Amino acid sequence: MYSKAEASQLRQAFWTAFGQYMAPVRSFDGWPVSWVNYKTGVKGVQFKLHADNRRASIAIELTQPDAGVRELFFEQFLTLKTLLHETLSEEWTWEADALNEHGQPLSRIYKELAPANLFNRDDWPALISFFKPRLIALDEFWSGAQYAFDELREW
Q1: Is there a domain that residue 73 lies in?
Q2: Is 56 inside a domain boundary?
Q3: φ/ψ (deg, to 5) at 33
Q4: Euclidean distance between CA atoms 131 and 148, whole angstroms
Q5: Can you spell out the DSSP letters for 72-103?
Q6: CB 56 within 8 Å of CB 113
Q7: Closest CA to 46 of 70, 24, 29
Q8: pLDDT in tens, the chain (155 residues)
Q9: Domain range for residue 57?
Q10: The model scores a pTM over 0.85
Q11: Has residue 5 been placed in a domain?
């Protein structure tokens, strides 16, 4: 078991290392990008990376506070499901109604790796190998798919 401070240090060290590892990688469109804090440019649409002592996950999270608006975004993603899975070269799990760690509602499209332990440095190569290709593929998907959300941006 780690103290809170040790766990925080390890968490920060991993995400810093991952960010440095990804720094030379340009976006699909050729621009520099902050991979750890990826900006989709659409309010309420986030790419989330998560790792703890049991698993790791990468997700598209829809966090619009209005359930109806969130449902519209989720339905729009459903129209792009085949393209998303083809770009990722794998199928992801789709959850229209989920809760985040704070109990707030969201929709989520995600892939998990388990077991994986962020606090074990020996697991870091596997975590990086899990996150890197999926994040790059998500960026490639989003490069074209973001325009399908133009009409929903104002919500």
Answers
A1: yes
A2: yes
A3: -145, 145
A4: 25
A5: HHHHHHHHTHHHHHHHHTS--EEEEEEE-TTS
A6: yes
A7: 70
A8: 678 898 899 999 999 999 999 999 999 999 999 999 999 999 999 999 999 999 999 999 999 999 999 999 999 999 999 999 999 999 999 999 999 989 999 999 999 999 999 999 999 999 999 999 999 999 999 999 999 988 887 66
A9: 37-152
A10: yes
A11: no
